[in-house]
């Protein structure tokens, strides 16, 4: 066994017992222990870590620890330039897709509203969430730190906020989603892409008063819902605008089968 000293920074301290926060932790490490193994043994999911320095040098999760190593562990950086260092916390290439656990139904709906492919089913077990994350390169959204410690989960985000609107702003800020949002392009209920339809196609599926006042209609070909710029649109647009940090785009928030 070897002895190493760990220091966690920023919000990573939230995962530690109160008596270990904001201080150096000297601990015995198992034989052939890696940085990833010990970071998670101390309570921090690997998906929350962006940078590890061992004795002042950038290190990966697979580095074997040696006697006397000093390990500094950092969360996502927002103020410092770490472009020249080996950053560990990365998102999948291309379009970001999510899978949300059973406790984040409200967040999943809001992410769909922002145009993100987000799988949610309150009946999904942890192993099913893990399988979807691995098979489809999805980012796991959860308030269960043990789920994020699963070895095969490469991308994840521990959601700290309790209310869905605050969760949306947190995820947008931490993952830098503003430039990737495509508001009102996805069905809030079944997650399928929306298709624009003309008034004639919507005529038999919306109330007459809506047909008289609205011109922009979209439909989900999976569940059949029709969306338009209804009474909730301004409120939803404002909320998305605050999360995105700009214009929330066009689309609709009223829906009718």
Which properties best describe this structure?
257 residues, alpha/beta, Ubiquitin-like (UB roll), 3 domains, five-stranded mixed β-sheet, four-stranded parallel β-sheet, 8 helices, 13 strands, 19% strand
Strand % is 15-25%
Strand numbers in spatial order across the main sheet: 2-1-5-3-4
Number of helices: 8
Q: H/E series, N to C? A: EEHEEEEHEHEHEHEHHEEHE
Could you give the distance between the termini?
A: 64 Å
Structural class: alpha/beta
Coarse shape: elongated
Helix content: 25-40%
Count of separate structural domains: 3
Mean of all residue-level pLDDT scores: 88
* Largest sheet composition: 5 strands, mixed
Describe the structure.
It is built from eight helices and 13 strands. Strand 6, helix 2 (105-113) and strand 7 (118-120) form a beta-alpha-beta unit. Helix content is 25%, strand content 19%. Helix 2 (105-113) crosses helix 5 (164-175) and helix 5 packs parallel to helix 8 (233-244). The strands form three sheets. It has a five-stranded mixed beta sheet with strand order 2-1-5-3-4, with helices on one face. Strands 7-6-8-9 form a four-stranded parallel beta sheet, sandwiched between helices. It has three domains: 2-74, Ubiquitin-like (UB roll) (Roll), CATH 3.10.20; 98-180; 194-256, no CATH class. It is elongated. With 257 residues, the chain is of the alpha/beta class.
